[in-house]
Amino acid sequence: MKFFSANIESLRELYDNQIRSLLSTEQQITEALPKMIEKATDPELKQAFQTHLKETQNHVTRLEQILSERGGKVDSIKCKSTAALISGAEDLIKDAKDESVRDAVLIAGAQRIEHFEIASYGTVRNWARILGENRQAQLLDQTVKEEGNADHILTSIADRVNPYAEKAA
Ligand SMILES: [Fe+2]
Ligand SMILES: [Fe+2]
User: Fold this and answer.
1) Cα(31) to centroid(ligand 1), Å
2) Fewest C-beta in 10 Å: which of 20, 114, 116, 138?
3) What is the DSSP secondary-structure string of 79-135?
4) pLDDT, tens only, 40-73
């Protein structure tokens, strides 16, 4: 992890910076998902988190691949936005005692993170194309598609699970 700030003076430097920030995002999610799997009650939700944990490990590998191909250090820059999204979700999880309400909280927190990832990866994929890094753009595109798919699965689970939360005492 990097503790000093660097000057960002070109799109290429901005791209490198944001790839490192996304590496931090994915590392933080890799740590958060096992706790979310443990807290989830609905079996389909647990399974969706488990599947996405495996995908997330691939997201880490793709970013490390991009950074090592670029010849620089494969280190992350802490993503404060991801840390805030995760800690906000963790606070709500602690407060939700009812199982179906807790599942609703978990889905809401996870979907906020997916949307953050979709936006962030969409941006760096666009920069990779402008920079002529087409292979890297393809790797980033694979990840965007998996984030989008995870988000759709969570929407369909929410449609089934959230009405139970409505009935909670
Ligand atoms: Fe991811
Ligand atoms: Fe994700």
Assistant:
1) 12
2) 138
3) -HHHHHHHHHHHHHHHH--SHHHHHHHHHHHHHHHHHHHHHHHHHHHHHHHHTT-HH
4) 999 999 999 999 999 999 999 999 999 998 887 7
Separation between Cα atoms, residue 55 and residue 111, nearest integer Å? 15
pTM of the complete model beyond 0.85:
yes
Nearest ligand, measured from the Cα of 86: 2
| Both tokens assigned to 11 | 């799109």
C-alpha torsion sign, points 110, 112, 113, 117: positive
Instruction: Check: CB of residue 79 under 8 Å from CB of residue 24.
Output: yes
> Could you tell me the distance, in angstroms and rounded to a whole number, from the CA of residue 145 to the centre of ligand 2?
10
Residues in CB range of 149: below 8 A, 6 or more apart: none
